[in-house]
Design a protein that fits this description.
Blueprint (H helix, E strand, L loop, with lengths): L2 E5 L2 E4 L4 E8 L8 E6 L6 E6 L6 E3 L7 E6 L4 E6 L8 E7 L2 E2 L3 E6 L1
Parallel strand pairs: 2-11
Antiparallel strand pairs: 1-3, 3-8, 4-5, 4-9, 5-6, 7-8, 9-10, 9-11
């Protein structure tokens, strides 16, 4: 059974960086889309970034373009999100989605 597990959240000052990782177990995911989503308090979940399978084509929300980078390692079944120049409005619970399955989420808090 697919079970993504996120790690790497925490508290950081505005302008700082964090790297989130998501490890998926259960089978090989080299052909599956992987994505990062976030949900801020009182708001709906929104897409942050996705990466396709074999060609690793990426997509970014406008709000994070140029600051965040999504990458994947198919040998380890992992997807990562490098977040730079963080802003207070990036504060949210970040969740990864692999093959339609959600991880439990990891909290990112950016202080001003």
């Amino acid at each position: 059974q697919v079970q993504p597990v996120e790690s790497g959240g925490g508290l950081v000052q505005a302008g700082g960086s964090l790297r989130l990782s998501c490890a998926a177990s259960g089978r090989t995911f080299s052909s599956d889309y992987m994505g990062w989503f976030r949900q801020a308090p009182g708001k709906e979940r929104e897409i942050v970034a996705t990466i396709s399978g074999s060609l690793s084509i990426t997509y970014y929300a406008n709000s994070v373009k140029g600051r965040f980078t999504i990458s994947r390692d198919n040998t380890k079944n992992t997807v990562s999100l490098q977040m730079n120049s963080l802003k207070p409005e990036d504060t949210a619970v970040y969740s990864c989605n692999v093959a339609g399955r959600w991880g439990q989420g990891t909290l990112v808090t950016v202080s001003s």
